[in-house]
């Protein structure tokens, strides 16, 4: 396996772990205790792992910080337009 392949495989694995922790929060709530941590604490750890992999991909010149910032802003605008995340009523 090449270094690049390993970067992609580990990123994919970490993303899958984020998915698992999101599902646990939906199923059990943010405050349930599992192995001495809440699902929200476990999700935070997995998101940190993804951020680490993103940093390594940037270091390997696979990602551009400029493009990441642009895509992040584009996603924010789409969410603002199409989701209820920014509605004052959706605070529940």
Characterization of this structure:
This protein is mainly alpha-helical and 92 residues long. The chain is 71% helix and 0% strand. The longest helix is centred in the first third of the chain and has 26 residues, at 3-28. It is flat, with a radius of gyration of 16 Å. The mean pLDDT is 93.
List keywords for this structure.
about 90 residues; mainly alpha; 3 helices; flat
SSE inventory with pairings:
Blueprint: H1 3-28, H2 39-59, H3 65-82
List the total number of helices: 3
Total beta strand runs: 0
Regions with little confidence, pLDDT below 50 for 5+ residues = none
From the spread of the alpha carbons, the general shape counts as flat
C-alpha Rg (nearest Å): 16 Å
Brief write-up:
The protein is an all-alpha fold.
């Amino acid at each position: 396996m090449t270094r690049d392949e390993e970067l992609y495989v580990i990123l994919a694995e970490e993303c899958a772990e984020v998915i698992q922790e999101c599902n646990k929060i939906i199923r059990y709530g943010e405050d349930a205790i599992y192995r001495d941590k809440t699902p929200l604490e476990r999700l935070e750890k997995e998101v940190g792992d993804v951020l680490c992999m993103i940093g390594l991909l940037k270091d390997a010149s696979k990602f551009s910080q400029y493009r990441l910032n642009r895509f992040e802003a584009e996603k924010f605008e789409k969410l603002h337009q199409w989701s209820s995340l920014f509605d004052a009523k959706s605070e529940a």
